[in-house]
Amino acid sequence: MSRIGTPSFVEHAIKEHKFNTKKWYGQNFLTDANILNSIVDAAEVTKEDAVIEIGPGLGALTEVLCERAGFVMAYEIDHEIIPILKKNLIGFLNYHIIEQDILKANILEDMERHLKEYKHIYIVANLPYYITTPILLGLLSKKLPIQRYVMMMQLEVANRICGKPATKEYNALSIWVEYKAIAKKVLNVPRTVFVPAPNVDSAVVRLDLYDTPPIMVEDEVLFNEVLRLCFTQRRKTLYNNLCIKYDKNFVLKMLECLSISPSIRAEVLGVKDFVQMSDYITHNSQK
User: Fold this and answer.
1) Which DSSP category does 226 fall into?
2) Cβ-Cβ contacts under 8 Å for 265 (sequence gap 6 or more)
3) Using CA of residue 97, residue 101, residue 104, residue 108, what is the dihedral sign?
C-alpha cells in the first residue's frame, strides 16, 4: 500500500514544505491507496516493464510504480514540487524525473536515453484535467513505441474517449482513439479522494494500442482534420459541416461515391467511414 497516498501524508507534506497547490497545473493529489494500486493493477506492470508517468506530483502513484515496474520515467512541470517528490521517494533508485512540460518534450529521445533496455513501455498517469485531450492527442500522434496507456482523467473526457456511435459522448476524440487503440474504462474515481478535491469526478481508462490499426488511413493529419470538421456543429448534418471547408459539389460527389447520406450526422458513422472520407479527399485533392 502506498504510504504517500493517504490524506494525512499529503496534508502533512503540503504543510511541512509550505507548498501551495497550483490550480493551473491541475494539482489534485490522490489519497486513496486502494485506488492507486488498482490503477497499477490495470496496467499489469511487472519488473520487466518501464513506465512513463506524467505529473507525478507528490509521488503517490510513482511510489507504487517504482515498487512494481523495472523503471519509471516521470515528467513534472512544477519545479517547486520536485524536491518534495524526491524526498518522498527516498529508498527508490529506479526512477528518473524530467522537469519539463510533456507537451514540449522529445519523448522518443528521452525513451532512447532512459528506457532502451525495456521491451514493454507503458504510460501510467493521473493526467491534469485542463490538458488531458491535448496530451492524449499529442501522444497518439507521435507513433511512440508504447503498448499501453492507463490514465486517470475527468469522467466526462473518459466517457468521450470510450464513446460509441449514436451516443452523446461520441465525438472526434472517440474515433481517433478507436482508430489507434482498444479503449476501456476500468474504474470510476470520486472527487472526495483528492486533496484538494476537484469539482468533478474522475475515471481511469486503459488503452491497448494496435501495432497496426485494423483500418489504415493514408494521411493521419488530414484524418484528424476531417474528424474535427465533421463534428464542428453536432446538430448540423455531415454535409453542412463538410461544406464549411470543401466545395459543395465535391462533398456531394464524395458522399455519393462512399454511399453515405448527406443528411445524416457524423455521430452515427464509424471509424471506417471517416477513413474512407479522408482517403477520398487525399486522392482527389479538392477543397
Assistant:
1) H
2) 234, 235, 236, 237, 238
3) positive
Total-model pTM: 0.90
Sheet holding 202-209, edge to edge: 95-99, 71-76, 49-54, 120-126, 148-154, 202-209, 181-189
Q: Are strands 202-209 and 148-154 parallel, antiparallel or unpaired?
A: antiparallel
Cα–Cα distances (Å) from 148 to 121, 163, 219, in that order, read 7, 19, 23
Q: HSE (CB half, 13 Å, CA atoms) of 9? A: 18
pLDDT (tens, 9 = 90+) of the chain, 287 residues, equals 667 666 556 665 666 656 655 555 566 778 888 999 999 999 999 999 999 999 998 888 999 999 999 999 999 988 888 998 998 899 999 999 999 999 999 999 999 999 999 989 999 999 888 888 999 999 999 889 999 999 999 999 999 999 999 999 999 999 999 999 999 999 999 999 887 778 889 999 999 999 999 999 999 999 999 999 999 998 899 999 999 999 999 999 999 999 999 999 999 999 999 999 999 999 996 55
Can you point out the beta strands (E) in 21-77? 29-30, 49-54, 71-76
Q: How many Cα atoms occupy the beta-carbon half-sphere of 189 within 13 Å?
A: 31
- Strand stretches in 10-48, DSSP E: 29-30
Q: d(Cα 71, Cα 114) in Å, to the nearest integer?
A: 9
Q: Phi-psi bin for 55: left (phi > 0), alpha (psi -120 to 50), beta?
A: left
Cis upstream peptide for 145 (omega within 30°): no
| Sheet strands (E) in the chain | 29-30, 49-54, 71-76, 95-99, 120-126, 148-154, 181-189, 194-195, 202-209
